[in-house]
Amino acid sequence: EGATQVVWGETISGGPGYHIRKLRYEVLPGMWMPAVLYEPDSLSGRVPVFLNVNGHTADGKAYVPKQLRCINMAKRGMIALNPDWLGMGQLRSPGYGHGRMNQLDLCGTAGLAVFYLVLQRGLDVLLAHQHADTARVGVAGLSGGGWQTIVISALDQRVTLCNPVAGYSSFLTRAADFSDLGDSEQTPVDMASVADYTHLTAMLAPRPALLTYNAKDECCFRADHALAPLLQEAQPFYRLYGYPWRLRSHVNEEPGTHNFDQDNREALYRLLADFFFANDPGMERTEIPSADEVKTAEELNVPLPEDNADFQSLALGLARGLPRAAPLPDTLAEARAWQAAARQRLAEVARLREYAVSAVSAGREQRGGLNVTRWKLRVGQDWTIPAVEVAAAHPKGTLVLVADEGRASLAAEVERGVNDGWRVLALDPFYLGESNAGRVAGLFALFVSSVGDRPVGVQASQLAAVCRWLAGERRAGPVVLSGSGPRSSLAVLIAAGVETEAISAVRISRTLGSLKEVIEQNLSVGDGPELFCFGLLEQFDVLQLAALTAPRQLSIDAPSERVRQELAPLARWFDLLEGRLEL
């Protein structure tokens, strides 16, 4: 909500009729975005202003097609802003990686907001110009730049014309065509439960918009599947306003690849001529040759503070005071009341669901005196997870095993459990082992969050449901739930924190001592989407989650020094609740 701060740098020569001014603007306190502004040499009155954004290119603001359209705009008398993007150009470093925006999500603050503020403040810079015409404000970009274009243009009504290029498709389209699955910012938490990109497109009405797609796009958002649903949903809104001709589309055939090359740029120039220069029939509709005026990245470099903030530094600052209600109560009555309230909050934060389980045998055999059963466990109406059950005669209860590396890694643990007298069930909940969708698994996990669920909540709900099935229908209790690895341990603690009846004891190993380690280690959502549950650290750290297991037995195998330090208060807590802690 603060005013946009701008630091202007040097002005360099552009080409005939224009110059380039270097600047940086503050996105959030301490986070600066480098940019260059293309200005005509002679300015009078009010002129169109244009925000040119780029996608996933290491070239950033030096990306040649973006420079060419900025140059062409300046030669048409327009003012064009060319900023870098998070993770690209001068900001191409791990701290700005798009999967690290989810570190802010973990803290209960939308990482998406950073992306939005980059755009909003870019418009602020343009509209603060003394020659800016507020009635002629445009945005265009390719790929991730197309995504930026639709988001800012739909939500910020200062934008009066836009041209997203191969930048987005409907969520329903993405569910059918995996090439369109996008990064964290393109599939943000809860967005699909609020609005599809079809809605954002309709929100452009009645402003002029050109939807450009490529016929042979090898990356994503190919014209044949991405474009039609957007037009179908948005055209009725343009008709209602009485301006159906303001919604246009263009399909690039040559080269037809993922591009914003000359054919696509000239489609934009025609749009500008029709709507920004309607009273100037002589306005050039084709590209003005300018290839020899393109600058190098070094020539466009903008000095930045050495300690420029990134996603990690922002998240570290947010995490410092979290969770908000950290201290555990001191009396038994307060402890029980805290647990009851915390279980309800945890179910809400993790979006837990109560599933029923139906089991289908996928094969039985006897091996060395042991009964081995392979299961397909149908969990609710949405999920099927694989499991293997191994038991000798007359087991004393059931040990449920889950591991970050999948159940295939649990052979030694299964053997040890059986030798100790347990029926052992090793399974792969969502995103682990056989339930991992491979190359696009992380993108699917983002999709799960976008439709309103949480990956760790899906896992925890599945684990709790399986434990209820074992303790109830199977009469195979008591049930001990065990997780190996930071991701599995987190899911196990959440499942056991809420499911108090079916789960009699909890074991975890290789656990994090604190969720703050996710940020300290600068992890990306691809390293484990379960670890980035929106708002979890705002309410709970590992200490509070572990406290919900009491008075049931909690065993933590091979704890690190960090784990011992962070979970030290559990000793007093388990004594208070007359539980058993093995650390």
Kindly describe this structure.
- The protein is an alpha/beta fold and 583 residues long.
- The protein has helices at residues 64-75, 102-106, 112-127, 144-155, 171-176, 191-194, 197-202, 223-241, 262-275, 311-319, 332-349, 411-419, 441-450, 455-471, 486-498, 516-520, 536-539, 542-547, 561-566, 570-576; strands at residues 6-15, 18-28, 31-40, 47-53, 79-83, 132-142, 161-165, 209-214, 247-252, 357-367, 370-379, 383-391, 398-403, 423-427, 479-484, 503-509, 553-557, 581-582.
- Helix 8 (223-241) links the parallel strand 8 and strand 9.
- Helix 14 packs across helix 15.
- The longest helix has 19 residues, at 223-241.
- The radius of gyration is 28 Å and the shape is elongated.
Unreliable residue runs: none
Query: What is the first-to-last residue Cα distance?
Result: 46 Å
Please state the overall shape, judged from the principal axes of the Cα atoms.
elongated
- How is the main sheet built? 9 strands, mixed
The residue-averaged pLDDT reads 97
Q: Count the strands?
A: 18
Q: Reading side by side through the largest sheet, how are the strands ordered?
A: 1-2-3-5-4-6-7-8-9
* Beta content: 15-25%
Helix content: 25-40%
- What's the number of helices? 20
What would you call the structural class? alpha/beta
